[in-house]
Specification:
This protein is of the alpha+beta class and about 60 residues long. It has one helix and two strands.
Length: about 60
Protein backbone atom coordinates (compact mmCIF):
# COMPACT_ATOMS: atom_id res chain seq x y z
CA UNK A 1 0.00 0.00 0.00
CA UNK A 2 1.41 3.42 -0.92
CA UNK A 3 1.27 6.43 1.39
CA UNK A 4 -0.48 9.50 0.02
CA UNK A 5 1.65 12.62 -0.09
CA UNK A 6 0.35 16.18 -0.23
CA UNK A 7 2.06 19.55 -0.51
CA UNK A 8 2.15 21.82 2.52
CA UNK A 9 -0.24 24.72 1.75
CA UNK A 10 2.31 27.22 3.12
CA UNK A 11 5.74 26.14 1.81
CA UNK A 12 4.84 23.42 -0.74
CA UNK A 13 7.09 20.83 0.98
CA UNK A 14 5.93 17.22 0.54
CA UNK A 15 4.03 15.81 3.55
CA UNK A 16 3.08 12.17 4.13
CA UNK A 17 -0.63 11.80 4.92
CA UNK A 18 -0.37 9.47 7.91
CA UNK A 19 -1.08 9.53 11.66
CA UNK A 20 2.57 10.30 12.46
CA UNK A 21 2.35 13.57 10.49
CA UNK A 22 1.01 15.63 13.40
CA UNK A 23 0.57 18.91 11.49
CA UNK A 24 -0.92 17.53 8.25
CA UNK A 25 -1.66 18.97 5.78
CA UNK A 26 1.12 21.29 6.99
CA UNK A 27 4.73 20.15 7.29
CA UNK A 28 5.27 21.82 10.67
CA UNK A 29 3.65 23.84 13.43
CA UNK A 30 5.37 26.93 12.00
CA UNK A 31 3.62 26.55 8.63
CA UNK A 32 0.30 25.90 10.37
CA UNK A 33 0.66 29.11 12.43
CA UNK A 34 1.64 31.14 9.36
CA UNK A 35 -1.55 29.97 7.65
CA UNK A 36 -3.65 30.74 10.74
CA UNK A 37 -2.16 34.25 10.85
CA UNK A 38 -3.10 34.81 7.20
CA UNK A 39 -6.74 33.92 7.95
CA UNK A 40 -6.77 36.08 11.11
CA UNK A 41 -5.41 39.11 9.25
CA UNK A 42 -7.83 38.47 6.36
CA UNK A 43 -4.95 37.71 4.01
CA UNK A 44 -6.92 34.60 3.05
CA UNK A 45 -10.60 35.06 2.27
CA UNK A 46 -13.44 33.05 0.82
CA UNK A 47 -14.90 34.87 -2.18
CA UNK A 48 -18.47 36.07 -2.01
CA UNK A 49 -20.67 38.66 -0.45
CA UNK A 50 -20.33 39.24 3.31
CA UNK A 51 -23.06 37.67 5.41
CA UNK A 52 -25.95 39.99 6.24
CA UNK A 53 -25.82 41.28 9.80
CA UNK A 54 -29.06 41.24 11.75
CA UNK A 55 -29.06 44.25 14.15
CA UNK A 56 -31.46 42.37 16.46
CA UNK A 57 -28.79 39.70 17.10
CA UNK A 58 -26.73 42.25 19.07
CA UNK A 59 -29.48 43.05 21.58
CA UNK A 60 -29.17 41.61 25.09
Amino acid sequence: MSITQVKCPTCQKSVKWEAESHWRPFCSERCKLIDLGEWASEGHRIKGEPAAVNPLDNES
